[in-house]
Amino acid sequence: MILVFARWGLYCFAMTSSSSDSRSLSPVIDVHGLAKHYRxxxxxxxxxxxxxxxxxxxxxxxxxxxxxxxxxxxxEFVAILGPNGAGKTTFLKLLAGIITPTTGAATVLGHVPWxxxxxxxxxxxxxxxxxxxxxxxxxxxxxxxxxxxxxRLDRQRxxxxxxxxxxxxxxxxxxxxxxxxxxxGERMKLELIAALLHEPEVLLLDEPTIGLDVVxxxxxxxxxxxxxxxxxxxxxxxxxxxxxxxxxxxxxVVITHGRILxxxxxxxxxxxxxxxxxxxxxFEQPPSxxxxxxxGYPCERDGPQVRLRIDRERxxxxxxxxxxxxxxxxxxxxxxxxxxVIADLFRAGRDEYALAETASGGQA
Amino acid sequence: MVRYFxxxxxxxVASLIRDMTFRLNFVLExxxxxxxxxxxxxxxxxxxxxxxxxxxxSGWTKPPFxxxxxxxxxxxxIVQAFFMPSxxxxxxxxxxxxxxxxxxxxxxxxxxxxxxxxxxxxxxxGLVGVALVAWGVSRLDTxxxxxxxxxxPLMLACGVxxxxxxxxxxxxxxxxxxxxxxxxxxxxxxxxxxxxxxxIYTGPWGGPLRMVCTFVLPILxxxxxxxRSLALPIGTGDVRLIIAAVVAAAVMLGLSRLTFQAAINRxxxxxx
Amino acid sequence: xxxxxxxxxxxxxxSWHGWTTMLSINVADxxxxxxxFFVGTLFRFLPIVTxxxxxxxxxxxxxxxxxxxxxxxxxxxxxxxxxxxRSFSSMPGxxxxxxxxxxxxxxxxxxxxxxxxxxxxxxxxVAHKLVYFAxxxxxxxxxxxxxxxFFPPLPEVPTIAAFLATLVMxxxxxxxxxxxxxxxxxxxxxxxxxxxxxxxxxxxxxxxxFPLDMLDSITLSSSGYSLGDLVQLLPFQYTAxxxxxxxxxxxxxQELVSGLLVEAVWVVVAAVACRIAFLRGTRRYSAFxx
Lengths: 364, 272, 290
Fold this sequence. Notes:
The complex is a heterotrimer of chains A (about 375), B (about 270) and C (about 290).
Chain A: H1 2-23, E1 29-41, H2 46-55, E2 59-72, E3 77-81, H3 88-96, E4 103-108, H4 118-121, E5 124-128, H5 140-150, H6 155-169, H7 184-196, E6 202-206, H8 214-231, E7 234-238, H9 242-248, E8 251-256, E9 259-265, H10 266-273, E10 276-283, H11 289-295, E11 297-302, E12 305-311, H12 315-325, E13 328-335, H13 338-363
Parallel strand pairs in A: 3-7, 3-8, 5-6, 6-7
Antiparallel strand pairs in A: 1-2, 1-4, 8-9, 10-12, 10-13, 11-12
Chain B: H1 2-21, H2 23-48, H3 62-82, H4 84-96, H5 98-103, H6 109-115, H7 123-138, H8 146-177, H9 181-191, H10 203-216, H11 220-231, H12 236-270
Helix pairs in contact in B: 2-7, 3-7, 3-8, 3-11, 4-8, 8-11, 8-12, 11-12
Chain C: H1 2-5, H2 16-32, H3 34-43, H4 46-62, H5 72-89, H6 94-103, H7 108-112, H8 117-146, H9 157-183, H10 192-205, H11 227-231, H12 241-247, H13 253-287
Helix pairs in contact in C: 2-8, 4-5, 5-9, 5-12, 6-9, 9-12, 9-13
């Protein structure tokens, strides 16, 4: 009897809290000056240093995050980009409450994550692309069942959610097969389903599409988009694939060396950081090198076809000049690939970091 | 609490499915552990063909000694079935980050990490242990009293609790050190002391060793107290041992809880 | 049989450079795990402590100074010596490693490269053992010194020489037996259970568990032979019991000479078995395309 009441009470609580959260304008995630340092033992290579290591071991402090501030509103879909080791995963782990920060403050759904209230942990989910949550030797259906008990899900509601998600991803025949027999893409789909069974309000995805083929990526994109719009879930996603970003996220946060380098929309990134456009021209009679160099920076030349990088501001006057002077069969104008833009951005972050380091080193 | 039983039930079912998927492996595990045990029994039969008692005047003649052996097997089977398989996976979980995914779940991490796998093949040895106890009891000079039969399962539970505490502390050490290679050797060699009657530890070295292994590192209580309570007449010194076992079980459980929490907190602040 | 012709004994001996590389890798690896190593080696002696107490207790009620010809001190010395013998003959991870490299296909590179797989494994193992002894000498020395009271007076020089010879041969025998076991991975997918069964049999039949003489008192009905006689027909005794019995003077004279000869024969038999298993296994492997 008591149990019934307790369940019912919790259910009401979950209902009210989630509806108030999605309606209120207070941010779902609110982070101020979050920093995380930890010590690692220096790896000793070779015989001589191994012997030295017998007597004393060197360790150094790694600053994984160096003061990150960020707010995320309900229903946002945010991509977190950055080179390897930039602190993306650390950031997600902090938001999930797995690790505690060295300094700084954060609230997720009104809770301090690293206090790990059960009430908080029931309301979000974390999926790590390189880690398995499902029982390896068993059908995913068994792991789902465990999930139901751990998250105290009402049986009917659980089954309904599960069936919906399974249908969305079209994996009905896979959930009764041992997970180890499935492909990486199929496994990731089931991982996502497991993470969404308790209808989390916040979803943290750490490289969910890593190593997947284009088809699997595509269907996961579609799935995430649908779930996110239907449920109003707030999603944070780290990735190395620009396809994920382009397909899913309006907002992009770039982290390098533990700091936020950029926070804004994807289109802004392209506007701000692309200085050139790529122009491909098919000539009847290919002009000389010097003529081409007068228009822009030549990238590639394949017989009568020439690819050029032209400054964005100059394109409006350069292109008519070319078309007027030469007989051109075909012309295409493209943006610089997103990957290149982001790579430039990362590089800029690295240079800035190196500069700051030498500056502070000079002071010390 | 009910939820924890439900979750444990899910673990049992899942482990059963898994064991039945790898049936051949399951059978082989049973056979090899039975083989190992048969070798041990054969060894003691061989020893008893040369002597009538282990430790002159200790009371551990063949029938009570086989109750001792059987009790040890039962306790070991319970530990091997419920706690050891999870503990073995523990270092791997720390290394591969499986610990991370556990820590986000709205459930006690120690419970999830120390009991998520049940190894059914371990029960094979437990059954033989029961048979050995039955055989030994039927040949005792004086049959156990009702009080002894009541005390026996309680003391058995205390023994299991002490070992569980040890395992959890080792798991905590795994988090702190980041690996467990040497730790389970440590487990094996330490529990090795508990495999013999406490009476064999005599003399200038044995006496202190017996004290240490009873009151500091309470492994000698694990098998000795339940086995004595059933197989040997209860003497005045036994009451002290029984109290010691109950206290040791409580302390080990509490201490393991504290070290585990400390280790998790350390993990949270020391990893990225 | 054409495969046999390609084998030459030189392949068993890797180049000098190979040796030094292997040695330094092993040393570095061991030093990197030095904490494990020291703790591990010292803990390995803990069962000896319980053995001392157990046998003291057994003798206290046995009413005889000798059990199967061993005094209490002999038992303790015997167990200490088995640790020594096992440190030569045990090959942790060898069979499992071979089986794994067959399963995951990494054995292929040894079939392509001009290097003999068995020879390579042997070199790695020798390097491993040398480093092990160099570092384990301290804890071993300490334990034997502390337990010197349990040992009989030092044996004669020929006995010591014979003892050393049996240790070297026990290393070779242990190596080839386990390597052969690992080669079964070419035929059987899951070798780990087999390895476990082997280790159980090895523990009992090598005399690691108790001196094999204890089995002499169990006669097999009407045949006139004892269980001990039967066990001593197997090669396992040479990996633990035989060296210990030699040191303790249980085996002497003509019996010692013939024992050494039989051990040598077993080494050759095991080496040939290992080679055949490897050749047949690789042939099967290439035939089925791995």
